[in-house]
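Retry 2 of 3 after timeout on previous attempt. Resubmitting structure tokens to design endpoint.
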């Protein structure tokens, strides 16, 4: 089968690789759609030291199953969790499945990734897709699960003032969840070039849009002198700024990556202590909340259509990654399709 490999800067190469035999608890999925994630952009820019496989936002059809697989059958359309929990470690048995580090996680190994013709998944990763859900929208369930973890970590309450910094697909979906949870004032912040992302933020319920390259977030005239919660889906160097936007007792929830010197931050520990602030890390693995996210799509509470701004055939993957990285004003989420998935996007 063909599978894509990536190497910085913005190089994509398709290779023919063999398909190994399935284990008893595995299934073979014919990939129809795969979304481009922000982590794929990071790899394209600077992180891939050598060629590596990639892609983890997959919708496809089950082609074969191992003899122990009972949750799906051949012919089922499925969405794939990029990781899940093992069920047997101490954390799982204590009910803390979100802390499990031993579950199936084969999207992030040396095996072929989601930008392939086929993908071998553990049965725990496969969730049958309700025919009522548009497969294009289902391709956003994995990043929606990441947004759900950020939302949960932030612990947003009715009538809270909430600021979201970074309006990629994850930030926008987290913003929508904050609105659904009863946020009072909902601020959406990004650079002016974000363009269409501001339009989606407004449609998702943002009450104010902040061009953070024009206006200082630290000096912004929030009605209560600050916000109750700030969600950061941006590089870590923005965390100190985010903390300064908080009211007394506020919580900052963060997800993102930094590299080199920019991965380190410095904060005033005395101010952090005396203002009773909290900084919480969000890391949505292995609990990705797929059933709840699929319900949000099915019910119409989160409309994924505005987030899908580019759809291309798989052989245009290199150009699509570059476009998503460079065209932040017009491209939010790109879906790639194999020939077998073309009908799903028409």
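Retry 2 succeeded. Sequence:
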């Amino acid at each position: 089968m063909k599978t894509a490999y990536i190497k910085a800067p913005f190089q994509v190469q398709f290779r023919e690789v063999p398909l190994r035999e399935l284990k008893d608890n595995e299934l073979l999925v014919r990939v129809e759609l795969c979304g481009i994630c922000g982590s794929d952009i990071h790899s394209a820019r600077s992180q891939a030291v050598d060629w590596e496989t990639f892609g983890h936002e997959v919708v496809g059809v089950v082609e074969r199953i191992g003899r122990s697989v009972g949750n799906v059958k051949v012919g089922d359309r499925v969405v794939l969790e990029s990781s899940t929990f093992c069920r047997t470690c101490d954390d799982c048995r204590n009910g803390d499945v979100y802390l499990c580090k031993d579950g199936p996680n084969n999207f992030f190994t040396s095996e072929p990734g989601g930008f392939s013709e086929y993908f071998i998944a553990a049965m725990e990763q496969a969730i049958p897709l309700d025919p009522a859900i548009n497969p294009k929208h289902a391709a956003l369930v994995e990043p929606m699960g990441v947004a759900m973890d950020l939302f949960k970590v932030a612990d947003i309450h009715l009538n809270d003032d909430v600021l979201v910094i970074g309006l990629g697909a994850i930030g926008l979906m987290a913003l929508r969840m904050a609105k659904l949870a009863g946020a009072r004032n909902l601020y959406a912040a990004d650079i002016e070039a974000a363009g269409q992302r501001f339009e989606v933020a407004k449609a998702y319920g943002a009450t104010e849009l902040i061009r953070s390259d024009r206006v200082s977030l630290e000096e912004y005239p929030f009605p209560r002198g600050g916000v109750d919660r700030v969600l950061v889906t941006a590089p870590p160097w923005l965390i100190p700024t985010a903390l300064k936007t908080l009211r007394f007792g506020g919580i900052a929830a963060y997800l993102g990556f930094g590299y080199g010197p920019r991965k380190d931050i410095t904060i005033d520990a005395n101010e952090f202590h005396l203002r009773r602030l909290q900084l919480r890390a969000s890391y949505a693995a292995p609990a990705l909340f797929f059933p709840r996210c699929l319900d949000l799509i099915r019910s119409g509470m989160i409309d994924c259509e505005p987030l899908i701004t580019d759809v291309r055939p798989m052989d245009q993957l290199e150009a699509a990654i570059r476009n998503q990285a460079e065209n932040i004003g017009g491209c939010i989420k790109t879906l790639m399709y194999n020939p077998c998935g073309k009908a799903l996007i028409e």
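Attempt log closed. The two ends are 25 Å apart (CA to CA).
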